[in-house]
Specification:
This protein is mostly helical. It contains 16 helices and no strands. Helix 2 runs parallel beside helix 8 and helix 14 runs antiparallel to helix 15. The relative contact order is 0.15. One of its GO terms (cellular component) is plasma membrane.
Length: 386
């Protein structure tokens, strides 16, 4: 598996995650309108079906994590490719609301089995606390999912239609995603990729720490999803033109990747709490500068993107560092479940807020991230034993 087993593991899983995200989470942004037009329903119905899929993903997360804790993640990730492919095929064959909803429900099951939560749990099962670098590497690669997925989906839809686009993504799960996940080592099978057996000392009040982390990630994912759905429109409300708003919003992706590289290069020797605390302050800082000194829209997009990129890493590394690798998958599922639920409602709620308050909607997102920052300050870095 390449010269370094851990590098090979990271590249393999990161590539599979790029495909998984591009063909599920990032699909509605391109296909919702043509789907709705062809099926004779409002686009909001497609997004509603997607929201239900995200809620199902949240419900199934702890069970998937528990399974990975016991059996390892290779089989779960391989199965996710088959489930996502089935959902996409049913989507391509949909003739009405019922089959469309069924397709998204099946895809939601596949997302629970095959996105970051399952990938992080798999790395925790294989590598223990030393999984941090691999988690960062996986998010670096999968950070390009929208950069790759949106143009590919748009090209397929423009040339062949949305049904063919869904069919092609289904085929890619079978011919690329499944073989990639099949390359992953079984839990405990690879002597070169061993789990770190030294458990992390738990914080003084682990249940409180779990509740605080659940709030932090719920706030972070609400803000992330709200910005992903409405950032160009939000920036227009500050007075910039559509072209400037779109150009500024396009900087979020590169900022995410740059921040993840920075986290790996500068902060990897510090406790993940440090990076998480920094991450939660960047969106409020950008909002404050945008409102008070008229910082360019691009500056806000860069700060938001950087914070969001670091938060994605923290969602995997922080629970692992605080609680250790034992039971990591189930605990990860429990902590992230509220974030998945908030993610499902964020586009609708934030859209209504923009309609009523314009750029003032930023007060909500900035406030949520400041509250998340305060919550992280209430969690103490556990002192190492020994």
């Amino acid at each position: 598996m390449i010269r370094s087993p851990r590098v090979g593991l990271t590249l393999t899983l990161g590539s599979a995650q790029t495909l998984a995200w591009a063909s599920s989470y990032y699909l509605p942004a391109i296909l919702a309108v043509p789907m709705a037009r062809d099926l004779g329903v409002p686009p909001s119905w497609v997004f509603a079906a997607f929201s239900v899929a995200l809620l199902l993903t949240a419900m199934l997360g702890p069970s998937v994590g528990r399974w990975i804790d016991i059996r390892g993640g290779r089989g779960v990730l391989m199965a996710s490719n088959g489930v996502m492919a089935l959902g996409l095929i049913i989507m391509a064959l949909s003739q009405g609301v019922f089959t469309l909803m069924l397709a998204w429900l099946i895809t939601g099951i596949g997302m629970a089995m095959g996105l970051y939560d399952a990938a992080f749990a798999t790395l925790g099962r294989l590598l223990g606390r030393s999984a941090r670098a691999s988690i960062t590497g996986v998010t670096l690669l999968a950070g390009f999912a929208s950069t790759i997925g949106w143009p590919v989906t748009a090209l397929l839809e423009n040339e062949f239609g949305w049904r063919t686009a869904c069919g092609v993504w289904a085929m890619l799960h079978i011919v690329i995603g499944l073989p990639l996940n099949a390359l992953l080592p079984k839990a405990g099978d690879s002597p070169a990729v061993q789990k770190d057996e030294n458990p992390a000392p738990p914080p003084d009040r682990p249940r409180l720490a779990m509740v605080l982390l659940a709030f932090v990630f719920a706030a972070g994912w609400f803000v992330s999803t709200a910005m992903a759905a409405h950032l160009p429109r939000l920036l227009q409300e500050t007075g910039v033109s559509l072209s400037v708003a779109v150009a500024a919003a396009a900087l979020v992706g590169p900022a995410q990747v740059a921040a993840r590289l920075g986290e790996f290069a500068l902060l990897r020797h510090l406790h993940p709490l440090v990076a998480a605390r920094v991450a939660t302050t960047l969106h409020p800082l950008g909002a404050a500068l945008l409102a008070t000194v008229g910082m360019p829209a691009a500056g806000f997009a860069l700060l938001h993107g950087a914070g969001n990129g670091m938060m994605t890493i923290a969602s995997g590394t922080l629970p692992l560092a605080l609680f250790g690798s034992a039971g990591f998958g189930r605990r990860q599922g429990l902590i992230i479940a509220p974030a998945r639920a908030m993610q499902a409602f964020a586009p609708l709620l934030f859209g209504l807020l923009i309609e009523q308050h314009g750029a003032g909607a930023l007060w909500l997102t900035a406030g949520l991230m400041l509250a998340a920052s305060l919550a992280l300050l209430c969690i103490r870095v556990p002192r190492l034993q020994g």
